[in-house]
Write a structure and sequence with these properties.
Elements: H1 3-58, H2 67-97, H3 105-108, H4 123-127
């Protein structure tokens, strides 16, 4: 395989890896956004539970009528369960994304040795011969 073929293959491998990593990052970002939405939903559920508890307390019915609180507490528990599921999904995706030991572009790349260019030749000596230069 020629030098340029090796460079071309390495460039193709790098491009493929970049596309793959970009897709994985996009998926993780999407899951993180879903988790953020669930956390906002949880906050709203806690606020609803607090409002219901406060209203019952204000009416001196907090100890008597817990059915109103049961529904709000159930909503909180439901959202918390979905948050746990989403966090587990994110952890699984991140585990898939983690490269296996030595499975990186850098580990499979070959070093390309750059040979230095030849030293420049003195153009005055060859072009003008022994003619002196004017000051």
């Amino acid at each position: 395989m020629g030098f340029l073929d090796k460079i071309k293959q390495q460039a193709t491998d790098v491009a493929s890896t970049v596309v793959e990593k970009t897709q994985e990052t996009a998926k993780t970002g999407q899951l993180q956004m879903q988790l953020r939405n669930l956390r906002n939903e949880e906050k709203e559920a806690f606020e609803a539970l607090g409002r219901a508890a406060h209203r019952l307390h204000r009416e001196s019915r907090l100890g008597e009528d817990s059915s109103e609180l049961d529904a709000a507490a159930g909503a909180v528990a439901d959202v918390q369960s979905r948050i746990s599921d989403k966090e587990a999904e994110i952890a699984a995706v991140k585990e898939e994304e983690a490269p296996a030991s030595g499975d990186t572009v850098e580990s499979s790349a070959e070093e390309v040795v750059d040979t230095p260019p030849p030293p420049p030749t003195d153009t005055n000596a060859t072009a003008g011969g022994d003619r002196p230069t004017a000051l």
